[in-house]
Design a protein that fits this description.
The chain is of the alpha/beta class. It is 34% helix and 20% strand. It has two domains: 180 residues, inorganic pyrophosphatase (n-terminal core); 109 residues, DHHA2 domain (Diaminopimelate Epimerase, Chain A, domain 1), CATH 3.10.310. Strand 7, helix 8 and strand 8 form a beta-alpha-beta unit.
Amino acid sequence: MRAVTSYPDPDTDGVASALGYCALVPGTVPVLSGTFNPETIFVLRELGMACPLGGSLANAVEVVLVDTHDVRQLPDGFPFDRVVEIIDHHPSGDVDAFPQASIQNEAVGAAATLVAERCLRAPWVLSPEVAAALACGIASNTLDFRASSVHERDQVAYAALGCIASPHFNLTAIVAGMMVARGALLAGPTAIVIDRDRKRFATSAGDVLISQVEAPHAATLLERPDLLDELRAAAARHGVDVALLNLVDLYLGVSVLVSTSPAVWLALAPIPLTKVSGQVAWAKEVLLRKTHLVPLLGIP
């Protein structure tokens, strides 16, 4: 059996990439773990698609990994030696940990773009559902093409996928609904909000946890009196030296950074931060974890 998987609690890009790969290589089974965020649940419901969570890689002879190749983002007991293929778009990763894998890691806005390009070159036509799912993965990861990480290839792939999906789905309406669904990311206890989209990285200054919340009015989380305490608790819970929270406010078009250590601002000095006050700093633009924060923090 060949299985395709991603990191636990995959985002819309990771889920769409897994579904797209299953369409590309028939017989491949998606094995995803954790939970889906509100945006992903919305997309699957709108497209009438099922993508079950759970399952095991124990019986998988070959494993395909999408949207990551960083060992710190994978669970204990992950079968590194059975990974035969990786499709990713992140600058950080551990190539040596996957000795059997062919690796495609390219600087585009979404892993779904890379999967879509392969599907669009295939000698058959994608189903409207899979085409729409891949398009949603691209729109999600590029913040509806507002992120600085957008590549021309993302736009070309999205347009081609839209031609396949449009007779059956209104992508414009679905993408608009995705932004509304992101508002649910702000719901719930602060600890859960911080943990929904977090990744751990090793740096020369120690391990860093970077949590990212991309939603309209994300900056309103600053009003929570327990925000900094819960961020410190997340650092302790995940065994890291520093925790950094990136609040990407899609309404204001800015990022607000909250750090358990003000020393982080020195590493991020190339970014024109404003209103730097202790543990909080504002940026005049949207900052993304992989594009802006990871490179400046010296993460390999």
